[in-house]
Amino acid sequence: MKSNLITRAGYDRLVAELQQLWHEERPEITKKVNWAASLGDRSENADYQYNKQLLRKIDRRVRYLGKRLEELRIVDHSPEQDGRVYFGAWVDIENEYGEQKTLRIVGIDEIYDHHPQHISIDSPMARALLSKQVNDEIEVMTPSGKKQWYINAICYEKP
């Protein structure tokens, strides 16, 4: 099951995407569909078929975003979280081999842009990090076995 948590910035991005699709992209594609339809035979009209398909894709995304935005719960940072890893945190971690990573724990809806530093709150790494603090050690089960990581830094503003 998908988590319904999202950061304020992630929510704002989804709202902006919905506005862009509804107020800019959809009207433009609708005009193209109407123009292509006015040319006559739609069965062999590539412009009509392509733009109609694009319009269906936009409509699906608009419906999805409309429903999803109603379900989401925005989680804002609060000062009480400082010093510990919670939703929305940027975390610097390092393993015993010196490999370092900076990760941000976000909702599944914020992974859509495949940001390499964003990890889902539902991921094993995020679950292991939650409530931990600087200098804590975590163990994460991976397909290749258990991995140990050390927490070097935690912040709630983008590093």
Outline:
By secondary structure, this protein is an alpha/beta fold.
How many strands, what sense, and barrel or not for the largest sheet? 5 strands, mixed
Report the uncertain regions: none
Taking strands numbered 1, 2, ... along the chain, how are they ordered across the largest sheet? 5-4-3-7-6
Average pLDDT: 91
- Which superfamily, in CATH terms, is the homologous superfamily of the largest domain? Transcription elongation factor, GreA/GreB, C-terminal domain
The CATH topology of the largest domain: Chitinase A, domain 3
Number of helical segments?
3
Record field, number of beta strands: 7
Provide the CATH top-level class of the largest domain: Alpha Beta
CATH structural architecture of the largest domain: Roll
Tell me the count of domains.
2
Return the string of H and E elements.
Answer: EHHEEEEHEE
Q: Using only CA atoms, what is the Rg?
A: 22 Å
Which percent bin holds the helix content?
25-40%
Structural class label: alpha/beta
| Beta-strand residue fraction | 15-25%
- Measured between the Cα atoms of the first and last residue, the distance is 30 Å
Give the overall silhouette. Answer: elongated
